[in-house]
Amino acid sequence: MIRVALRSLLGRKLRLLMSTFAIVLGVAFVAGSLVFSDTLGRSFTALFASAVGDVVVRPVGGTTVQGSPSTEILPAALVDELAEVPGAARADGNVTAVGVFVVDTGGKVVGGLGPPALGGNFNDAPAGHGLTGLTIQEGREPRAAGEVVLDERTADRAGYDIGDTVPFVTSTERPDLEAELVGIAEFAEGGSLNGATLAQFDTATAQDLFLGGRDVYNDVWVTAEDGVSQEELAERVREVLPAGVEAVTGDDAADESASDLLEAVSFLTTFLLIFAGIALVVGSFLIVNTFSILVAQRSRELALLRALGASRRQVTWSVLLEAFVLGLVGSTVGLGLGVLLAMGIRAVTATFGLDLTGQGLVFEPRTVLAAYAVGVLVTMAAAFLPAHRTGRIAPVQAMRDDVALPESSMRRRLVGGLVLVAVGLVALVAGLFADVPRAGWWVGLGVLAVLLGVAGASPVLSRPFLGAARAAYARVFGAVGNLAGQNGLRNPRRTTATASALMIGLTLACTMAILGASAKATVDRSVEESFVGDYVVSSAFGGEFSPAVADEMAEVDGVASVVRERFAFGARDGDDQGISATDPGSIDDLGLRLVEGSADPLRDGTVVVQESWAEDEGVGVGDTVTLDLPAGEEQWEVVGIFEDNPIVFFPLLTTLDTLLSAGFPDRDNYVVVDAEPGATGVHERLEEVVADNPVVTVKDEAGFAAEQREPIDQLVLMVFALLGLALVIAVLGIVNTLALSVIERTREVGLLRAIGLSRGQLRLMITLESVVIAVLGAVLGVVLGTFFGVVLMRALRDEGLDVVSVPVGQLAAFLGVAIVVGVLAAVLPSRRAARLDVLKAIATD
Q1: pLDDT higher for 314 or 844?
Q2: Strand, helix or coil at 577?
Q3: Which regions span the lipid bilayer (predicted)?
Q4: What is the mean pLDDT of residues 590-609?
């Protein structure tokens, strides 16, 4: 039986090629996602191992929740004291800053998106465990003001060599500066900045730029003497530290930093694995269809094997053996393609700032195991039902000319499908509207159950559509159209199984189209209703910028007022909490509509809160909000509640001085500019203020709305690009089904040609069959996608997305594309059918 199964497999290589390709694509996404994830983890681990000392001494609250330096600092005298600790070989103070952007030779910022633009002081302190940290590769270290060292990757991307003058844009009180490039540095131990940029100055200059000229540091590295462990040294260091200062081992500091960053970018791996799952589900439909057709074509052969003594189990396992071999081949090819895909993902993320080109790909054993487990198990699971049905062929059937493969009843499929749809709807409602753990899993499983339920019941549900298509075809195309329609009705299981693969891809595409359109419509309405002032000034990268920009804009002719807004993150009950801040006298300028309390009492140490947030948290006027901030735990009194406002991005609004005293740096995130009535040319004059600052942009209402829509467009395009994989597999499914169907109907095709059907009519018949499959899948996908999209938007109303927009034109375009897909998918199968020799076809058994 094993030899029979393998010979059967080798005898049908071309028939199984496209099924193998479907599993290849799914496995490639799984393997590529895991390789990329492991590469990302190794890169961060190597980076932070080379970027910490044996012991790191830092002020408690020395960094914000987001990892940026706070205003909490250490006195320089502490460095000398730490160097005298028993077991310490040396101690080195570090100055660290974020928002030090390198401007390249073309006047554009290097990086900016994603990884930070770092600045600080250069020192030659060794990293933990004696590792060599950042070292000078070319040139020398900076020794005086006006000199700088860049990391190798940044210097190369910016186009600078030793001796060139490098311009910078900073978020400090000095928004722009220049320095001569005197050195280029790299990590000797193989670490990579992963797309971040690094500019290092001499210590005095760094303190002047980033710490207000004070002789202080952000943290101190203490290097251990030979034979002294990090834990031992940390214990000795803690004995001499003042209150408010902590010492952690370099290993712990590196793990902490790497874990935080890996958690922040873990959505990339999750995102890719979700689409790998979609590809595998869609590919499963193709495999089920392929094996169903192949088993049906071999039904007489399998019945003969039963007549010759093969048991039901042997026949079933012979088919599963073919699926096992197919899964092995597909997984092997998919694994190789996954490595190429990981390289592609690495190249794409580099364009968004996460540059891993300095880190070789990491290929862990778990990637191999996952690839083969997924590929083989999915293939065998998809082939199980066709294989199981082979065992139900009675040996006596081998004596007949026509052998019918046993099929489950339509009623049973309908009932099973409807039950699955009901279960899916319950899970979907629970995930969206009930307070259940891991709500996202409930939603995902609910959507999957509904899709599979509709796919299971579709042979019955689609009969009216297939009947209408037959009637329409007969009316328009005559006898040829009638034949095409009858072929679709002849085996509704096969037709709908093929259409279901396309249905899944289009369901998700339509859902995403509705979510994207609704989110953009919500943004447009919110901006239109609540936009205040005439212009908004912000960072092109969504970060902070120098307060000097607002100072200069306040002096521009025609400007009536300038309102600063700043953002920060604290922690509340262990969760991140966003905070906004402005001048107390600017509340009215921000267009805040208070529903309770008064903004007049807003003073340092108080806060006004968003209405929806206050309801969710049970907070009212007179209550206090407790937050963990860089300067320690603070309690702010609630003095007002305001309606949601698109300019106030976070639910808590306090004063600028309150943020400064809490340990956050003196930097702006947004500036709202109001022009004097009748003033002209204000926009142009504001643009002149930031003409040499490529980080800061000036936008009117339309520009601000477009900026808010841009991330939504990028996300939707990314999802569509990944869903294209599922659609490609679905198209392959249509091609494969038609090709196998032509093989199955070889004798029938020969008879039709013998009684006068021309080659052109034959091609038209198969094309019409393909169009029916594609349009059926598209109609089901659009209907389900519209349902899911509207339901999801209704569930997100409490999150502020309260406008439901159905892009009718885009959904109609999906239906139009389905027709084109149907025509293109029929090209190869119809060409093969038309080239069949009539006499040989008639003689086919």
Answers
A1: 314
A2: strand
A3: 271-296, 317-348, 368-387, 414-434, 440-461, 499-519, 715-743, 764-788, 808-828
A4: 82
Give the C-alpha distances (Å, rounded to integers) separating 387 from 320, 483, 619: 6, 30, 61
Tens of pLDDT, residues 669-706: 889 899 998 888 899 999 999 888 888 999 988 888 88
Is the pLDDT score of 486 beyond 80? yes
| Tokens linked to 364 | 């862990």
Listed residue (276, 233, 271, 223) closest to 22, CA to CA: 276
**Percentage above 70 pLDDT, the chain:** 86
400 vs 568: CA distance, rounded Å: 79
Segment (H or E) for 276: helix 250-297
Q: CB 545: neighbour CB atoms within 10 A?
A: 29
Q: Average the pLDDT over each of 435-444, 504-513, 602-611 and give the range with the smallest value.
A: 435-444
Q: Which tokens belong to 743?
A: 């093989």
Q: What distance, in Å, lies between the first and last C-alpha atoms of the chain? A: 23
**What angle is formed at CA 494 by the lines to CA 488 and CA 498, rounded to 5 degrees?**
95
Decide if pLDDT at 405 tops 50: no
Euclidean distance between CA atoms 232 and 229, whole angstroms: 5
Nearest Cα residue to 591 out of 571, 565, 628 = 565
Cβ partners under 8 Å of residue 124, min gap 6: 133, 135, 141
Strand partners, 247: 57
Beta bridge partners of 135: 186
Q: What is the 3-state secondary structure (H, E, C) of 471-538?
A: HHHHHHHHHHHHHHHHHHHHCHHHHHHHHHHHHHHHHHHHHHHHHHHHHHHHHHHHHHHHCCCCEEEE
Structure token digits, residue 652: 């808590």
Considering only CA atoms, which of 106, 370, 53, 93 is closest in space to residue 207?
A: 93
pTM as predicted: 0.74
As a whole number, mean pLDDT of residues 719-747 equals 75
Q: Residue 164 carries which side chain, given as an amino acid letter?
A: D
Radius of gyration of the CA atoms of the chain, in A = 33
